[in-house]
Amino acid sequence: MTVYVFGHRNPDTDAICSAIAYADLLQKTTCPQAIAASCGPANARTEFALRQAGVAAPRIIMDVRPEVRDVCRRDIVTAHEDDVFFEVYQRLSQYKLRAIPMVSRHGQLIGTLSLLDLLELVFHGDDHDPLKSRRVHSSFQKICAAVGGHYQHQVDAENREDMIVMVGAMSSGGFTERLHKFPAHQLLVVSGDRPTVHVPAIEHGVRGLVVTGGYELSPGLLQLAAANRVTVISSPLDTATTLLRIKAARSIESAIRRDFQTLSGQQLVQDAQQTVQNSTQIVFPVLDDEGQMIGVVSKSDLVRAPKPRLVLVDHNELTQSVAGAEESEILEVLDHHRLGGSLRSLQPIRFINEPVGSTCTLVARQFRQLGYQPSPGIALCMAAGIISDTLHLRSPTATDVDRDMLEWLKGFCNCDLDHFAREFFEIGSALRTCTPDQVIREDCKEFQEHRYRFSISQIEEIGFDLFWKRKDELQAALEAHTHRRGLDFAALMITDIGTNGSLLLMSNEPNSWSDVNYPRVDRHLYELAGIVSRKKQLLPLISRILDSVSARSTGA
Fold first, then answer.
1. CATH classification of 432-553 is 3.10.310.20, yes or no?
2. Which neighbouring-strand residues pair with 495?
3. Which of 34-38, 127-131, 281-285, 519-523 shows the lowest mean pLDDT across its residues?
4. Within 427-538, where are the H helices?
5. Is pLDDT larger for residue 388 or for residue 172?
6. Where in the chain is the domain with CATH 3.90.1640.10?
7. Is there a contact between 207 and 186 (Cβ–Cβ < 8 Å)?
8. Where along the chain do the CATH 3.10.310.20 domains lie?
9. DSSP code of 535?
10. How far is CA 440 from CA 67, 79, 545, in A?
11. Is domain 3-65+307-426 in CATH 3.40.50.2300, yes or no?
C-alpha cells in the first residue's frame, strides 16, 4: 500500500525537499511504495531549487481522506438487460457475487440485479394467476443453450417472446383437451419419447416442442413440424431437469432494479457511508465526473476502507498537516520543530525530533548513517532545504550538524552551493510576484497556545522596500485571513536576508502585547532586530507573552 511522505501545509523549501529526499531514501530501504506528496504547490524559490536539481515536484494532494474511487473494485463484472437467468446466475456464482450492475449493449448503466431478485424471478408464484409460474419470456436460442440441446428444426429462434410451458406427461386425450385451452403460438411443449403427445402438439401448430431424454423426432414427424413451423429442440436431459432449465432461460429484464443509487468516485468514503447506510441495495456503481462507471462498492467495502499511511516531515502538529491526517495511520515523524498538537498513534512509531536548522539535515544524516550516497539531484534538493531554512547557515537556528551535513552534501552536488544560494535567495520575491493572500499563505503555520489560536507566516526578502509599498494591503489580507480561519490573530514575519532582521505585521494584537519589548514602528507593525527564525525566536516570544496573559487572567 502506498505511503505518502508529507511536509506541512503551505509548504516551504525545507518541507518539500525533505519529503522528496526522504521518500527517495525510504524507496531504497524499507518502503518501495513511498511517494513524496505536498499539501500545495511549490513557491518560486522551491521551483528554482527543483529545476536546478532536476527533480520532479511532489504529487499535490490536498486531502488524504479516502474517496470512493480509492476503495471501489475496478474489475467490474456486469450483466446485460437481454441476458437470461442462467447466464447471470453463472456469472454471480463464478465471481462469488451477490449483486451485479446491469448495462445495455451500448454500455450504458441501467440498474442493478441481486441474487435475491433472480430467485424471485424464477420461484415467484401468484395465487390469482396460476399460469404465471409457467410463463417464460425468452428465445429458443437461449432455451436451447440452457438445456444444452440442439435444433432439429428452428423458426425465428433469436426472437424473444412470451411462451407458456406445458408438460406432455398425461394421456393423449387429456393432453389434447388441455392443448386447446391456450393460444397455439405461445405454447412450448416439453415431452419425452411420446409420439402420442408429439403428433397432436405439432398438428395444433404449437410454437415449439422440446423432446427430452436425448430422443429425436422421426423424419416423418420432423417434416410435419417443418410444415407447421414448429421449432423442435432435442434435450439430453430428463423432463424434470429440462423444465427447470427452461425456466432458467427466463429474461431477467423485469427483475432489474432501475431505481438504484450510485456513488461519485470523488465522494469521501465517510460521506458515502452515511449515504448508503439505510439502503437495501447490495452493490453501488461508482461513477466518474462524466457519468461513466469506473467501479463498484458494497457497504462492507466502505466500512473496511484502509486508512491512508503517512510519514510526516518538517512538522508534527496535525493542525499543520494535510487535511485528513487525523484519520490516517501515521507511520513516522521526522522534524526539527517544537512538539505540539494532538498527534497520537495506536502503535509505537519512529519519531525523530531534533533541534537542528532544517529537516533536510536529518534526512541527509540518515542517508549517511545508512551508507547510501544520494544522487546529485537529491543531494542538491537536501542542500536547498538546509540553505533555505538556515539562511545559508546564518540563522541562529543553524547548528554544527547543519554545517556538517551541508559540507557532506557538497561532495555529491554538481554545482557550487555558494553560487546556488545567491541565486536561490535572489529568485522568487513573494512581495514582487504574489497577491496579498498568496503572501500570507505561502509559508503559513497555525499554532495553539493556551486558549489562543493564531498563525505566523514568514517570507524572506532582500530589503524592505517592496513591503513598505504593500503594507496596507498585506494588513488587510492578514485581517481577512484571521476572520476566515477563525483565529485570534495572525502575523506576517518579513525577514531581510541581507541584514538578518525582520518586521512583524499583525492583524491585531492580543492582550498585553506591549510585553513584546520590540519597537513599534507603525500601527500593528514591529521591528524585530536580529530575529530571523520563526520557530526558535518568534514563536517562543509569542508563547511567553500568551503565557503571561493566561497567568494574569487566572490570578497565578
1. yes
2. 460, 502
3. 127-131
4. 430-433, 436-442, 465-485
5. 388
6. 3-65+307-426
7. yes
8. 432-553
9. I
10. 30, 54, 23
11. no
Whether residue 555 is predicted with pLDDT greater than 70 in this model: the reply is: no
How far is the C-alpha of 477 from the C-alpha of 459, rounded, in Å?
A: 15
Cα of 23 vs its chain's centroid, Å: 21
Indicate the helix (H) or strand (E) that contains 504: strand 501-506
- Which of 374-395 are b and which e, b meaning 16 or more Cβ less than 10 Å from the residue's Cβ? bbbbbbbbbbbbbbbbbbbbeb
Q: Which segments of 122-239 are extended strands (E)?
A: 135-138, 150-153, 161-167, 187-191, 208-211, 231-234
Is 113 in contact with 100 (CB distance < 8 Å)? yes
Nearest to 25 by CA among 313, 254, 238: 313
Residue 125 has pLDDT above 60, yes or no: no
Find cell 524572506 and name the residue: 460
Which of helix, strand or coil describes residue 14?
A: helix
Nearest Cα to Cα of residue 331 among 26, 14, 20: 26
Q: Is 343:361 a contact under the CB 8 Å cutoff?
A: no
Q: Tens digits of per-residue pLDDT, 173-231?
A: 888 888 888 899 999 999 999 999 999 999 999 999 999 999 999 999 999 999 999 99
Grid cell for residue 321: 498537516
The string of DSSP codes covering 145-170 is: HHHT-EEEE-SSTT--EEEEEEE--S
Residue listed under C-alpha cell 521551483: 47
Signed CA dihedral, 313, 314, 317, 323: sign only: negative
Q: How far is CA 359 from CA 23, 129, 417, in A?
A: 13, 78, 18
CB 340 within 8 A of CB 448: yes
| Cα dihedral 308, 309, 313, 319 sign | positive
Report phi then psi at 317, rounded to 5: -100, 130
Q: Across all residues in the chain, what is the average pLDDT?
A: 91
Spatial distance between the Cα atoms of 197 and 545, rounded to a whole number of angstroms? 104
Q: How far apart are the first and last CA of the chain?
A: 51
Count of residues in the chain: 556
Within 8 A by CB and 6+ apart from 181, the residues are: none
Report how many helices (DSSP H) and strands (DSSP E) the chain contains, helices first: 20, 24
